[in-house]
Write a sequence for this structure.
């Protein structure tokens, strides 16, 4: 995670003598939708589900 929680985590790791590895998130590929939060994500999923013909008739299902 990042944002406002980053600095306290780095401070705690330094005080505990723990190594820290920072990995940058890759750029979002062109054409990939991005949302700002969980409410927008849920709306995107509902809208995508409604647009997909197989979802409206109950299949196919992807298991993971």
């Amino acid at each position: 995670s990042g944002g406002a929680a980053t600095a306290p985590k780095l401070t705690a790791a330094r005080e505990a003598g723990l190594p820290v590895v920072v990995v940058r998130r890759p750029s979002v590929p062109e054409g990939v939708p991005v949302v700002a939060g969980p409410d927008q994500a849920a709306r995107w999923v509902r809208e995508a589900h409604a647009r997909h013909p197989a979802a409206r008739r109950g299949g196919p299902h992807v298991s993971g």
Notes: The CA atoms of residues 10 and 20 lie 7 Å apart.
